[in-house]
UniProtKB/TrEMBL annotation:
Residues 158-252, 271-301 are annotated as: Disordered. It comes from the Bacteria. Residues 194-207 have a biased composition (Acidic residues). Residues 208-232, 242-252 have a biased composition (Basic and acidic residues). This is Uncharacterized protein.
Amino acid sequence: MDLREVAGKLYSVAPADFIARRNAAAAGADRSTAQQIKTLRKPSASAAAINALTREHPDLVGDVLQIGSRMRDAFASRDRAEIRALTQERQRLLQRATEGLDLSPAVQREVEETLQAAVIDPAAAAAVRSGMLIRALESTGLEQVDVSDAVALPIDIEDFPAPRPGRPKSRAGSGGGRAAEAGDETSAGAGPDESGEPDESDEPDESPSERRERQRRIRAAEKVLARAREDAEAVDDELDETVDHRGDLESERDALQRRLQRITDDLSETRAAERELRSRLSDAQRAVREAEKALRDARDD
């Protein structure tokens, strides 16, 4: 079994079982593959939830990601009505995708943010479809999604293509045909950005410079948050490794203690036997001396 097959199996288990399963997989592999297996990082709770969702409900995930292609077409054709409709549809699909997941509010939000990023960015979509996410993804809607170190193994976007968009439902007020899937995601004078947020003309209380400054602060805060999460996940991985190592050492200690107890018992028995033999030897030597004396006395007579 090659590394990618092993990774596919590992990232299908619950995070709590990941380290043990990874160690077992490494133990059964050749040295080179084992070393590579040991470098596979434990997924965060949100990444594990996304991986499970991709594996167990691929059609639903496909529907979510398909919105991305349709929205890019709508932006290319500046079809504001279609953009609004797709934004609403996207929200419905995101809600469906996360319904029934037993997650904390924070993890639930990360799952939604990851799916949102996958809708907007093809690289993020490929990362989600790989089923090997190790951390959540985020998007501001203005820049490419950072997928570096987000997937356990390197992937090629072409290996995980987004679902081809189907024919959208007709809606009153929708514009004409869409441009081919390409072109700028936003254009001067276009409406909302890909995240579905209104543009400056829809927000008269916020000037362009204020909007840019707000987005700059958001991006800076998101980068700090991403780094903090990565650091926390790295520490979590190290903690898991340390706990496993401690368990191994405790098992080894217990085995050594049992062996030491057996040796101590054997030593006590051996010492007791030694004392018994020394006592018997003393008695035997005394008997020899008495016999020798008796022999001498007999000869003297």
